[in-house]
Amino acid sequence: MDLGPSRRQAARMRKLLLIPLLALAFGAAPAHAATTPTVPPLNTAALAEAVRPGPDASGALARVSGSAGSWQGSGGVARVGTSAPVHPGGRFRIGSITKLFTATAALKLQERGVLDLDQTVQHYLPDLLPASFTHPITVRQLLNHTHGIAGHDLPHKDPAWFFEHRYDTFDPAEVVRMGVAQGPRFVPGERQEYGNMGYLVAGLVIEKVTGRPYGDTIRDTVLRPLRLHDTYLPGADPRIRGVHAHGYEATADGYVDVTEVNPTLQWAAAEMISSAPDLDRFLNALLHGPFLTDRSRTELMTVPTAPGSVHALGISRLDLGNGLVVWGKSGDRPGYNNGVAATLDGSRTLVYSVNTLHMGGDRSPTAVRIITAAFS
After folding, report:
1. Closest by Cα among 77, 191, 98, 91 to 141
2. Residue 17 domain-assigned?
3. Which residues form the Beta-lactamase-related domain (predicted)?
4. How far apart are CA 303 and CA 299, in angstroms?
5. What is the pTM of this model?
6. CATH number at residue 150
7. What's the pLDDT tens digit per position in 9-37?
8. Looking at beta carbons, which pairs linking 131-138 to residues 24 or more positions away fall under 8 Å?
9. Which domain holds residue 223?
10. What's the rounded Cα separation, in Å, for the pair 19 and 214?
C-alpha cells in the first residue's frame, strides 16, 4: 500500500511545515468563533508510518484521542545502539509547552483572587524594571508576548554552548536582568513577539504573590487536581525520571546523548517534563469541562489585538482550512520536539514527541508527518 501523501496532503503539509518551530503558526481569529467540525476519519496506517522517524530523528511517539477515534504508537529506538522501542507513554522534555502550565497557574491564582492579570509588573515587582521602561506592563502582556522585554542573548541551542553549559544552574532573576538591561523593545501592547522572557518574569510574579516557588503553584493548582502523575518540574535535576526515550545530537564524531541537562535557564518558560497521556488530559481539561471557569477559559483563548498577533495565554489557534480549527502549543529542547493540539468539539486531540538529532533546527520533518497524518 502506498502511504505517501496525496497532493492534498502535501499541500497541507507545506502549510503545517512551521508548526513545530513557531509554536503552531496561528491565525488570530476570535476565540469564540464557531467552527464546523471537519476532522477526517482517523488514518491509523498513516500515523503508524509517520512515527517511523526519518534521518532527522532517532525516535518518535504520538497519541491521538477524541470522539472521532483513538490511536497511539511509536517508532525508532529509545536509545541509539539498542533495539529498545520508544514507549508511547514515556516521559519527555516538553519545552515551551511549559508556558501553558504557567499561564494556567496564573489563571487559577486569578480565580482565587491572589493575582490580577491586568495589574502591572511594576506593581508586583517594583524593583525589577529600570526607569527606561516608562510604560506599564501587565501580567497579561507577559503571558501573551506583548510585553516588550528583550530576551537574554545566550546561544542555548548552539551545540558548542550547550555542551559547555548543559549542567550549569541559572538564577531566573539574573536571566531576566539580562533582558531588562537591554531596555524595552517596543511599547507594551503594540506588538507581539514570542519568546521565553515574559514567562520568566511571570514566574517571578507568581512567586512574589504566593511567597512560594512557582513550581509549588503549578503542582497545587494543575498537577494534583488533574492527577498528572507523569508531569513534574525538575528544577536543577538534569535527569528524566522513569521510562523515556533519549535525545541525541548528531556530530562529526557520532551521536552525543543530550538527554541530561539542567533546565534552570528555561525555568517557567520551558523546563517541564511530561508524557503524552498527561498532556492529552491537561489540554482537554483546559478546553472542556469545569477545571477552568468560563471567564478563565475565555481569557486563556483570547488573542491580543496587536497587529499580527497569533498567541493567546500559553496557547495558540490554528486554522487548518475547510473549517478545521485546532488549539495547542509546541515546544522543543535539544533532543526533543513535541506538540499538543485539539479541536474544540472534542473530536480529535494530538500529542507527539520526536527525538530530533539536531538542536535549534528550522523544523522536524518527522513532526510534520505526524501532524499531517493526524489532521489530514
Report:
1. 191
2. yes
3. 48-370
4. 9
5. 0.91
6. 3.40.710.10
7. 444 444 444 333 333 333 334 343 444 45
8. 132/183, 132/184, 133/180, 133/183, 133/184, 134/184, 135/184, 135/187, 135/188, 136/188, 137/188, 138/188
9. 7-375
10. 28
